[in-house]
Amino acid sequence: MNILSKIGLATVLIGVGALTTNAVQQPQADEPPVNEKLEEKLVNDYNVYALDLPSEMDFAGERVPLENPDIRERMDRELLVNTYWQSNGLLIFKRANKYFPIIEPLLKQHGLPDDFKYLAIAESALENNRSPAGAAGFWHFLKGTGREYGLEINDYVDERYNLELATKVAADYLKASKERFGSWTLAAAAYNAGNAGISRQLEKQKVGDYYDVLLNSETSRYVFRILAFKEILSNPKKYGFNFRQKDLYTQIPSYKVKVDTAVTDFADFARLFGINYKILKLHNPWLRDNYLKNASGKEYYIEIPEKGYYDYQP
């Protein structure tokens, strides 16, 4: 086939292709244009709704003045943000089922209102994580604050990651703030901004209430984030969260082993109890290395999961 014949054949094929494409792309006379169909599908398949704010809200028994337009807008913002961040919200429901049964009795034991369990969500989303500023654990203590309140923090042990010990410290800190300010709401704000920072702003602005003081953006949102978590977790269906009990995370039954000597190798230590190093660390994130010096003979209590919950053959 010569070059002219090839060109002629290519032209015919292109023409046929164009006709075929047009036949596929052009809607029938009685059908709406493609863009209109897509718009209709989007409207029908996905909707975002404005939320009705509750008529009454409180934090630790202290009323939220929702009749104030500024307060209503700030509360509305946090409810919207945390309702429509669905993946994060669902993860929090899952983790709360696992960790609230541990946190709730500790708060009661240490004299803190139950609502402070939602502060732990605002701090860490119920994960033993670390903030960019270096605050660590469920309750996000900085090293200095943790040590000030008696937590051991070094290369081998970091008790900020020990949920039981850190919850006690959080309770002590918050109770001291409550005594200073006379308000659980201000105590919660001071957990974010520091007692000195809150005191300075209250004095400067000549007010005595969290809802009357102008604070930085983070602290201005902080208590409302806690309130949003309380409202959403208390009313999952209202805010569109759907799950079954079997979808939620649960705590693995465990027991504790007292250790008052050095541990030369936690991998070997774990094998003594029929688990591996990873499982040991998952249950004891406060152990920060693969061995423990313990020259002072201090007593530590290491959590060991009961047999049968992990498929592992040491």
Task: Give the arrangement of secondary structure elements.
Layout: H1 3-25, H2 34-45, E1 58-59, E2 62-63, H3 69-83, H4 86-109, H5 117-124, H6 143-148, H7 163-181, H8 184-193, H9 195-205, H10 217-234, E3 254-259, H11 266-271, H12 277-283, E4 300-305
Antiparallel strand pairs: 1-2, 3-4
3D architecture notes:
The chain is mainly α. It folds into two domains: 62-236, Orthogonal Bundle (Lysozyme), CATH 1.10.530.10; 254-305. Helix content is 51%, strand content 5%. It is built from twelve helices and four strands; from the N terminus they run ααββααααααααβααβ. It has helices at residues 3-25, 34-45, 69-83, 86-109, 117-124, 143-148, 163-181, 184-193, 195-205, 217-234, 266-271, 277-283, and strands at residues 58-59, 62-63, 254-259, 300-305. The strands form two sheets. The chain has a two-stranded antiparallel sheet. The protein has a two-stranded antiparallel ribbon with strand order 3-4. Strand 1 (58-59) and strand 2 form a beta hairpin. Helix 7 (163-181) packs across helix 8 (184-193) and helix 8 (184-193) packs across helix 9 (195-205). The chain is globular. The model is unreliable at 1-25 (pLDDT under 50).
